From TrEMBL:
Keywords: Isomerase, Membrane, Rotamase, Transmembrane, Transmembrane helix. This is Peptidyl-prolyl cis-trans isomerase. The gene is cypB. Belongs to the cyclophilin-type PPIase family. InterPro entries: Cyclophilin-like_dom_sf, Cyclophilin-type_PPIase_dom, Cyclophilin_A-like. Its EC number is 5.2.1.8. PPIases accelerate the folding of proteins. It catalyzes the cis-trans isomerization of proline imidic peptide bonds in oligopeptides. It comes from Ferrimicrobium acidiphilum DSM 19497.
Length: 264
C-alpha cells in the first residue's frame, strides 16, 4: 500500500478518535452538570424542610411566651387578678376563683348604673366566699352591662346574671354560710340561689324595702351593705313590677361598671 494512502487512513482514524473523545467529554460534562443540579435541589429541599418546622415551632413558642407574659402581667402569684393592673373582661370561668381578700383590708364596690351610683361595703365576715366571689368577678368586669332583671317593689332588686335572666351563671357554683337571723336590712346585698344547697353563682339581690327586711329567710348569704346611694336603690325599686315575680321590671336599669376600692 502506498505510503500516502496509509497516511490518509491514519489521519482519518485520528480524527474519528478525537471526535469520539470530544463526545465522551461532552457526555461527562452534561452528566456532572445534572448531578450538581440534583445535588443542589436536594440540599435546598433539605434546608427548607429542616428550617420550616423550626420556624413554626419558634413562632408557636414565641406566641406561648407572649400569652404567658400577658397573663402574668395582671395575675398575682396566687392566681388572683391584680387590682392595680389592667384586667381583661371575662364572663365564664371553669371553677370558683382563688381566695383573694385580705382580712386586714377594707373593700368598697362602687357600682355605676343607668339609675345612678351606689357604694357597697363588702363584709367578708358575714359571707367570706360570697364577698370574695363578688370581688373577683368585679375585677374581671363580669357585671358590666348586666341588668337588674328582677325588681319586686318593696322587696328586692336582683342582678348579676350574664344572661339577664334566672339562668345565668359564671360557669361554677359554690356554697357559703348562712347569715344570722335579722341580717337583712335596707341596702343589704346577698347571694341569690336556686333554693338548693351549693347553688350560689354570680346573681345577687339588694334588699329594697320592708318586705325584704322582714320576709326573707336566712338562707341567702349576706356579703355587703349599701353605704351610699340608697336613693338609687329606691329609683330602681320604683321601676319594678308585681307581676310574674318581678320579671321583667317596668323600667330596666343596667350596671355600667363595678369598681373596687381597696384600703387598709
Amino acid at each position: 500500500m502506498p505510503s500516502e494512502k496509509r497516511a490518509r487512513i491514519r489521519a482519518n482514524q485520528l480524527k474519528l478518535k478525537e471526535a469520539e473523545l470530544a463526545r465522551a467529554k461532552r457526555r461527562r460534562f452534561i452528566r456532572n452538570g445534572v448531578i450538581v443540579v440534583v445535588a443542589a435541589v436536594v440540599v435546598f429541599v433539605g434546608i427548607y424542610l429542616l428550617t420550616k418546622p423550626q420556624t413554626k415551632k419558634s413562632a408557636a413558642a414565641t406566641k406561648t411566651t407572649s400569652t404567658a407574659a400577658k397573663t402574668a402581667s395582671y395575675l398575682l402569684p396566687d392566681g388572683c387578678p391584680n387590682p392595680n393592673k389592667v384586667i381583661p373582661r371575662k364572663t365564664h370561668f371553669k371553677k370558683y376563683p382563688p381566695e383573694c381578700l385580705n382580712p386586714s383590708y377594707h373593700y368598697l364596690a362602687v357600682v355605676k348604673t343607668t339609675a345612678g351610683t351606689f357604694d357597697v361595703k363588702l363584709e367578708p365576715k358575714l359571707g367570706p366566699k360570697s364577698a370574695n366571689n363578688f370581688y373577683v368577678l368585679s375585677l374581671y368586669h363580669f357585671f358590666n352591662g348586666t341588668t337588674f332583671f328582677r325588681v319586686i317593689p318593696g322587696f328586692v332588686i336582683q342582678g348579676g346574671s350574664p344572661t339577664n335572666n334566672d339562668f345565668g351563671t359564671p360557669g361554677y357554683s359554690f356554697a357559703d354560710k348562712n347569715p344570722p337571723a335579722g341580717s337583712y336590712h335596707l341596702g343589704t346585698i346577698a347571694m341569690a340561689n336556686t333554693g338548693k344547697p351549693h347553688s350560689n353563682g354570680s346573681q345577687f339581690f339588694i334588699v329594697s324595702g320592708t318586705s325584704g327586711e322582714k320576709g326573707l329567710t336566712n338562707t341567702y348569704s349576706v356579703f355587703g351593705q349599701v353605704t351610699k346611694g340608697l336613693s338609687v336603690i329606691a329609683k330602681i325599686n320604683a321601676g319594678g313590677s308585681t307581676a310574674n315575680n318581678g320579671i321583667p321590671p317596668k323600667t330596666t336599669y343596667k350596671i355600667n361598671t363595678v369598681t373596687i376600692q381597696v384600703t387598709k
